[in-house]
Amino acid sequence: MSRNVVISGGGTGIGLAAARAFAADGDRVLLLGRRGDVLRRAGVPGALTHAADVGDVAGARGVADFVAAEMGAVDVLIHSAGGSGRHEPRPERDEPDPLDEVADDWTAAFRINTLTAVLLTEALRHRLAEPGGRVLFLGSIAAYRGSGSGAYAASKAALHPYAHDLARRLGPHGITVNVVAPGYVEDTEFFGETMSEERRAQRIAETSTGRAGTPGDVAATLHWLASPGAGHITSQIIQVNGGAERGH
């Protein structure tokens, strides 16, 4: 039976890989993202697209209105929007101050990685299928190991208690909530042009499998967690990092 699947950050990387996996099963997929042209080029058969910034209340409300008009119920909600960069330039100031920059960076990280997930979930919460609905968040190995600056890692770690609370709220309605936490994944926009060969080799050496992750690795885990076979799995953080989180 075809399901309605909503994926934020669905135009690239892990979100796009997940969209293709669900579409291949005959599910109806809605791709969300800030860049409409990227969504249209994604090439997912039969997919709907809607451009919106779901880190903004108006954007999340717009998605809810679109879903109500075009889909109705949501069987699977996947939060793949996020990143380690910024969506807007830093605010201009006459006298730049390092403390202001710290505040800007942390605010941006939580808006991009935490608020996007929270606002979209709350906007669509009453449209989740009962029973059988699935809410899936993209976390990160950084939530356990740090990310250098701390802001990105903290914004991903913040998803853990939200997911646990949400699982308790939605469990009585037959809806599960889980977080998938990838490690180093190639073929995404996450690192941009910043990944050196030395750094890549170091990341791979940290794994027990001896290879980088792929968007397909994470998409397959999301697809399984959305299946009937995973119906008694909820409030979990699923690691997909080749063992790197355990360290070497």
UniProtKB/TrEMBL annotation:
Protein's UniProt name: SDR family NAD(P)-dependent oxidoreductase
Naturally occurring in which organism (per UniProt): Streptomyces tropicalis
Source domain of life: Bacteria
Gene3D superfamilies per the UniProt record, alphabetical: NAD(P)-binding Rossmann-like Domain
Annotated ranges, domain Ketoreductase: 3-207
InterPro entries documented for this protein: KR_dom, NAD(P)-bd_dom_sf, SDR_fam
Family of this protein: Belongs to the short-chain dehydrogenases/reductases (SDR) family.
Region (Disordered): 80-100
SMART domains assigned: PKS_KR
